[in-house]
Specification:
Blueprint lengths: L1 H5 L1 H9 L4 H42 L9 H26 L4 H7 L1
Helix pairs in contact: 2-3, 2-5, 3-4
Length: 109
């Protein structure tokens, strides 16, 4: 949300320089993917490692001999879902940011 608001001026300058509205929105979507993607992937890796360590310490303390089960498809669904959700929010904000005419936004500054 802050990125869309902060880059509103940049999107307006892109549109004045000849970029279409679609291209300006795409630049904001790529920015959102570049920010959300590594965060989701890093969070998934840290979460899986932390979950494995936590479960093993609890299971060992209680005398359980069951290994933790982590499936790759579930992790992939979480990663892809997070990136899709981040891009959906960015798309809505980009749509709102590029709706006004470039002249009115530049005149306001």
């Amino acid at each position: 949300m802050l990125i869309a608001r902060a880059s509103r001026h940049d999107l307006t300058v892109l549109r004045v320089l000849g970029a279409s509205t679609r291209q300006a929105r795409a630049s904001l979507l790529w920015l959102a993917t570049a920010i959300v993607g590594p965060a989701i992937i890093g969070g998934a890796v840290v979460g899986v490692i932390g979950g494995q360590i936590g479960w093993r310490s609890i299971a060992t303390g209680r005398g359980l001999d069951q290994a933790p089960v982590t499936t790759i498809p579930r992790i992939a669904v979480v990663i892809v879902g997070g990136i899709v959700a981040g891009n959906a929010v960015a798309w809505l904000l980009a749509r709102r940011s590029t709706r006004a005419s470039p002249a009115s936004l530049l005149r306001a500054e």
